[in-house]
Model the fold of this input.
Amino acid sequence: MYSKILLLNFITASLMIMAVYCHPPSLKHGFHSVGVNDRRMIEALRNVEQQMNDRIDSPNLFRVETIDSSFIMEKVGFQASFLYGETECNKTDIDHIDSCKFTGHQIHCHAEIRKWYGKNKNTYELQSFDCFQH
Done:
């Protein structure tokens, strides 16, 4: 009876250790700081602009105004804190977002982005997106 309890405790402890050390890597570790004008960061933010606008409860488009800080995990992940400015354009004008003028209303946002590599096209996925009034 005592040996069965020891065996069960050993199996439980082994499973707990495997759960801690064998999970897939997340976007939380392995980032390094890059300049706020880093072209890879700007490309990643542009590619998820529509996804970010879909999460904002406003009929108007928002776009990145100023990047405060940016971090990259080589080739797979991006993190940025930035000012997200409201524009005069409606969300239906997403194809012309670069020509939309800012209204002066800003929110401060943080985004985590994942880059996926495909045969013909790379895609960017917004992993998390949080904003608060500036």
